[in-house]
Amino acid sequence: MPREVSAASRLRRLGFAAPARAESLLAEAALAPVVAAAGAAGAPLPEALGRAADPDLALLTLLRLVEAADDGGDLAAVLTTDGPHRDRLLAVLGASSALGDMLVARPGDVTLLADRDGEVPVLDLTAEDERERALRAVGADHRDTVPVATVTGAEGVDTLRRTYRRRILEIAAADLTSPDPLADLPKVAAAVADVVAGALDAALAVVRADQPDGARGVRLAVLGMGKTGGRELNYISDVDVVYVVEPAEGTDEGEALAVGTRLAAALARACAGPSGEPALWPLDANLRPEGKDGPLVRTLASHLAYYERWAKAWEFQALLKARPVAGDLALGQAYVEALAPMVWSAVEREHFVEDAQAMRRRVEDTVPAQHAERQLKLGKGGLRDVEFTVQLLQMVHGRTDETIRSRTTLQGLAQLARAGYVGRDHAEELGHHYRFLRALEHRIQLYRLRRSHLVPTDEADLRRLGRSLRTDGVDGAESLEERWRQVRREVRHLHEEIFYRPLLPLTAQLSAQDVVLAPEAARARLAAIGFHDPAGAIRHIAALTEGITRRAAIQRQLLPVMLGWFAQGPEPDSGLLSFRKLSETMGTTHWYLKLLRDSGAAAERLAHLLSHSRYVAASLATLPEAVRWLDDDDELTPRTREVLEPELLALQSRRAEPVPGVMVARYLRRRELLRAGIGDVLDAVPDGRSRAMITTAADVALAGALRVAVAEATAEAGLAEPPSRYLVVAMGRLGGEEMSYASDADVLFVHEPEPGADPETATRTAVAVASKVRGLLGEGGGEPPLAVDADLRPEGRNGPMTRTLSAYAEYYERWVEPWERQALLRARPVAGDDDLARRFVALVDPLRYPAEGLTEAELRELRRIKARVESERMPRGVPPTRHLKLGRGGLSDVEWTVQLLQLRHAGRVPELRTTSTTRALHALHEAGLVSAEEAARLDGAWQLASRIRDAIVLGTGRTTGAKIDTLPHEAVELEVVARILGYPPGRRLDLEEEYLRRARRARTVVDELFYQ
Q1: Where are the domains of the chain?
Q2: Which of 746, 1005, 740, 996 is nearest to 893 (CA)?
């Protein structure tokens, strides 16, 4: 037994995750002699396996390989010798189950990994070497102008596919055993691209054999696009191509097009169609003119005609990487040279830079939300950030500088740095990170030889990837995750700093002759004071000030001052654009420009609002008359329910129809949301004020919707009077009067039939009332929706939408769960019958304020549920420290802690009987149930998290989605949030540090008070 424990411990230290199983496999009859011989020769096999990315996978596949080998002697010799051949073999087996399966199926291919004295290393072979190898494999002469295979049909297809995969095996082995995989990354990507090009030529040779006279009357060129053209392919990628065809001498153009189309279609089948060997990769020709709708092949003249007349800006960006890869290379080169002038002048098109930047944002938006944090290619801080940055700089500056026109991202980045378009430090950092991301992408794809760009979440997968990289301090799952996130942050920061560089749009709009000249003074000033798009700002200013109208004259007075105010905000460009839109809407209104010109505060306040808050800017666009409020502080003070209710009743009384009746309620809510937003942005989101305003607006909207719903449902039931009395009870943040700009309205619906009313009719009408309240306040109608959520009702979604008071009493008496008691702590009647409201409160008070507190079983249940919420509801990829709601020390932590203490003590401490978190926390301190320091820590974290959530909505304009609950990672968004909260420019990290500190301290209190 001690020996077995010692052996298992040794294997675990070597990196085996299942040492006992590994020990058993090493003792298998097929492998034991090899293990013993290797040990006797001083080259222990377990130690060699321990150097693999996944020693367990390497060992299992090795056993299968030994068992499959017809002649185990040669393989045994490899395994008992501590040398490069064994290292390559075990590295492949431990990193790629797909390549391991390939070797098990053909054990003889192990010899491909042997040392080759005198031969060129696999990563140093040229494209012509690869072409010759591939053509020779199918019996074609590489010296022939139009090679035709002698190994044809299905056999030829299978041969070229086997040849390709053997070359990938050799490249992967060299890659996986490289002492510096990041330095060798460009060689690996180029080698894969060259093997792909060779396979395309071999495939063409095979399909030509099926054509009369080998299709020698047709010149067909295959242009590689994207990573294929840039010689930076992944192990598994779609291969993007474009076809050009020309008739050879004596051949009709129509016939050449027909034959070329047949060849291109057959080429695609040879690469990806059914065969005895697995498919290689899809040939994607969708980057051709007109995409899927265009002809598969065109003549060079046809290509030129399309690009001269119809091509969009992004199509010229795609052509940056076009390169002849197979077929008639001379024709392919003619294609590249003919299109080059159009490619390098495309930047002179109007809005080219803006369109390129918008395209990058659209690409980000295509990433599914559930994958956004794990996307290596398209997500923020991913490969596309680097590639788009390099390509945009090349397009802008490359028209006059031929030294920066490389098709390859890393070479292009180095050229940009040498020419001074990118700082050397930035280029070096960006290049290093790009290599890391590409190497990680390669390792992910190698495992199963499948196309994937998602970083896995499984611990074993991350461990294998980290061990296979062994660079940048990465050697396992935790270090890989940490390094990847750091790289993403830094790539995103550099991308934003370079890709959105203010002078890029200006430079793009200059003529080629003027590129080297300094921009005009106005644009220089705009750039200097903080505008990211000076050219766009000039356009907005011109639209506002051109002409001889009074409106233009006042704008000419206002703008020189307002531009400085815009520049003081985090988004001056957005502020100026919003101002232009608002002015075009209100410019003819007599008071608007006069107010801005003559008021001591309105213009500055407006500039501050528009350059800080997309939410306020969008709201002002729909309610422009609110600009008047900026000159009157009284207009910005909160409106109480006592003020809003009479106004709503008066407005509804003038509208007989139900839809207009509820729209005025929604209008009042929209107006009060804007009033709250303006106050928040101007006053740096003070604690509590806007939450009360938003809650009041929701209360009033629910009351208005209930009145309309009751009248409509009663009429539809054919009744003169409502058959029941109705009540809407607020729950959650609505009940606690703690709503944010993005909160739903959690409610319970209660009804009580009138004496003599038919119970069935009363129930049916009550359900209709509840449904109508939800529908009337939902989407549509041109007003912001208020989502009404009744899921906190008894039995949740499976329970009836509304119940009578007696039904609630029966349910709570028999079935109430601890979490339902907790939810009822924030129950607050907001609309409906006052007497029914009083009786509902009397019903639930003993449940939420139990005289005896909570039993130990109930305490355990609430802690269990809270633990489940923490582990199961946290969005994937969001660090727990950054989630404002569910994260450690976040809103949920504080609220659950306060509510648990209320359930335990409110039965004997009446001051705890409040629906408000902050008031309850104050009462807990006053009652001596929490210390002053504990209360301060909980309150500080809760208040700051609430303020940050509101600032995210105000800054970004987003009211839905996971991002509103997450402390931003991105520098730009974090800066906007920090500025709204009153932090000085450039001090966004102070906000981040303050929140993380407060949350961390609050969590220690939660651990003590809630989890004990």
Answers
A1: 2-113, 351-503, 521-627, 641-848, 858-1011
A2: 1005
SS (H, E, C) 201-224: HHHHHHHHCCCHHHHCCEEEEEEE
Match domain 858-1011 to its CATH number in 1.20.120.330, 3.40.640.10, 3.40.630.30, 2.60.120.10: 1.20.120.330
Residue range 803-820: average pLDDT? 94
In whole angstroms, what separates CA 402 from the centre of its chain? 35
As a whole number of angstroms, the distance between CA 796 and CA 793 comes to 5
Query: What residue type is assigned to position 145 of the chain?
Result: T
400 is written with which tokens?
């006059």
To the nearest whole number, what is the mean pLDDT of the chain?
90
The dihedral over CA atoms of 260, 261, 266, 271, expressed in degrees to the nearest 10, equals: 90
Query: What gap in Å lies between CA 986 and CA 979, rounded to an integer?
Result: 9
Strand-pair partners of 241: 224
Cα Rg of the chain, angstroms: 35
CA–CA dist 643, 638 (Å, integer) = 10
pLDDT tens profile 140-180: 999 998 999 999 999 999 999 999 999 999 999 999 999 99
Residue 514 pLDDT level (bands cut at 50, 70, 90): very low
Task: Write the pLDDT tens digit of every residue in 698-749.
Answer: 999 999 999 999 999 999 999 999 999 999 999 999 999 999 999 999 999 9
Q: What is the CATH number of domain 641-848?
A: 3.30.460.10
Runs of H (alpha helix) within 279-399: 300-309, 313-318, 329-345, 352-365, 383-397
Report the SS3 class of residue 242: strand
- At 390 the pLDDT is 94
Percent of the chain with pLDDT over 90: 71
Given this model, what pLDDT does residue 116 score?
Answer: 76
Separation in Å, CA 75 to CA 71, 144, 619, 715? 8, 39, 73, 88
The second-level CATH assignment, the architecture, of 351-503 is: Up-down Bundle (1.20)
Residue 359 in tokens:
């395209």
703, HSE (Cβ side, Cα atoms, 13 Å): 23
Question: Tokens standing for 347?
Answer: 């930047």
How far apart are the C-alpha atoms of 885 and 876, rounded to whole Å?
14
User: Which two structure tokens, joined as six digits, stand for 953?
Assistant: 């909505």
What are the pLDDT digits (tens) for 61-96?
Answer: 999 999 998 766 678 888 998 899 999 999 999 999
Give CA–CA dist 702/665, Å, rounded. 8
If you average pLDDT over residues 674-680, what whole number do you get? 95
In this chain, the answer to whether the domains covering 351-503 and 641-848 adopt an identical fold is no
Q: Which amino acid is at 900?
A: L
Tokens matching residue 796: 């949740």
Residue 825 DSSP SS3: coil
- Residue of 661, 658, 635 whose CA lies nearest to 648: 661
In angstroms, rounded to a whole number, what is the distance separating the alpha carbons of residues 890 and 999?
6
Structure tokens at 536: 């766009």
Residue 498 scores a pLDDT above 80: no
Question: What's the longest Cα–Cα distance across the chain?
Answer: 104
Distance (Å, rounded) from C-alpha 100 to C-alpha 60? 10
Question: Taking 90 as the threshold, does the pLDDT of residue 412 lie above it?
Answer: yes
Q: Which residue has the tokens 């049909």?
A: 153
Indicate the helix (H) or strand (E) that contains 749.
strand 745-753
Contacts 24+ apart (CB under 8 A), 1-8: none
CA atoms of 27 and 23, how far apart (whole Å): 6
- The closest alpha carbon to 349, from 534, 513, 538, 508, belongs to 508
Structure confidence at residue 864 as a pLDDT band (50, 70, 90): very high
Classify strands 724-730 and 745-753 as parallel, antiparallel or unpaired.
antiparallel
pLDDT digits (tens, 9 = 90+) for 658-671: 668 888 999 999 99
Choose between 400 and 3: higher pLDDT.
400
